[in-house]
UniProtKB/TrEMBL annotation:
InterPro entries found in the cross-reference section: FTHF_cligase, FTHF_cligase-like_sf, NagB/RpiA_transferase-like
Pfam families on file: 5-FTHF_cyc-lig
Keywords: ATP-binding, Ligase, Magnesium, Metal-binding, Nucleotide-binding
Family: Belongs to the 5-formyltetrahydrofolate cyclo-ligase family.
Entry-linked PANTHER family: 5-FORMYLTETRAHYDROFOLATE CYCLO-LIGASE, ATPASE INHIBITOR/5-FORMYLTETRAHYDROFOLATE CYCLO-LIGASE
Name of the featured protein: 5-formyltetrahydrofolate cyclo-ligase
Domain of life, source organism: Bacteria
Keyword hit for Cell wall biogenesis/degradation: no
Organism of provenance: Streptomyces galbus
Transferase listed as a keyword: no
Cofactor: Mg(2+)
Lineage of source species: Bacteria, Bacillati, Actinomycetota, Actinomycetes, Kitasatosporales
Reaction(s) this enzyme catalyzes, per UniProt: (6S)-5-formyl-5,6,7,8-tetrahydrofolate + ATP = (6R)-5,10-methenyltetrahydrofolate + ADP + phosphate
Amino acid sequence: MLTADDVRESALALAEHALELPELAHAHTVAAYVSVGTEPGTLALLDALRARGARVLLPALLPDNDLDWGAYAGEGSLARVQHGGRMALFEPVGARLGPDAVTGADVVLLPGLAVDARGMRLGRGGGSYDRVLARLERAGARPALVVLLYDPEVVEHVPAEPHDRPVHAVVTPSGVRRFAGRP
């Protein structure tokens, strides 16, 4: 079980490695998310991206499990939103930009439960990010897809459906792993 200190230290290491990615160094717009529970922490990374001048978009869960997007303006711009019997999420306050706003992102940071040696990501099962990836494909958008995980969550194999798309890289507290055939 991870302690609060473990989560905090992992978040700082994760941010450090993520910020070394050339894709993030040159990104004007990054679609990201706010970690919840014991997920690898993202706030340090989000704040560092904003400090670099990147526009950071965060999701807001819609009733049909699709995602709308809003701009991140610092930790004070977040509201804790309870979605029925599911977990509470931290979402941006302020104007909603619409589900298609993600198509303008240079990089999309994805949550997950695991990623395998092929770069296939196992999500939480709600399908929200499957919709995002399908929306990107329909729009012809080709952002870098990066999943943020702990080291033990990089596994040999996860189940994949025909609609699943591999990510380009995974960032963990110990470093970055890129996947074969990906930029």
